[in-house]
Amino acid sequence: GPRGAKELFDFLQRLEPKLDNCRALCKASRQLKKLIDHHIERLQAVLHCTVDVSHPVPYAEKLVFLRELWSIVYHLAEWSWKGYVVALGPKVETDWHNKRFVLPSDFDAFKFLTYVRTYVAFAQQKASGVEEQMQQRDESEVWMIDAHNKDWAKSIDIPDLPQPSPDEEEGLEPAERR
Length: 178
Prior knowledge:
Mean pLDDT: 63
Low-confidence stretches: 130-135, 137-164, 168-178
Region (Disordered): 154-178
Number of domains: 1
Radius of gyration: 23 Å
Strand order of the largest sheet: 1-3-2
Structural class: mainly alpha
Distance between the termini: 86 Å
Oligomer: single chain
Helix content: 55-70%
């Protein structure tokens, strides 16, 4: 009857702002997803491999992480992707044959970025033969998300870079050389 219709109308009016909020959140979420996909495409284009970031963290956090990761990768475009993935350290699962690396669901993205940046700084200094500078290095050069991570980068055992095979250096498969 009329009373039921009025109650329904009142209920819908109370619900409308919440629905608008949901629509706005959905739209923002879709835009973030597009940005994330864009960053993944750029990373894959430079690294020539599949990047899987399906771990369950909020889109906003994932985007910050991917932006930072892109800024690192962008400066390392001349590295072989294997060298880069080794720089990612123990926090990634790698499938060399299919050129794929997967970030696990339980990792701390910002500690991971600190690890990569520390590795990169170390590898670049080692490559240029300026190992003495590592002892004198200013700690502020290592990017940190907060003070809690300060000691984390110092305690990392950084592996040596893999030496690319002659085939990799020239970018040719053995079959293509003939």
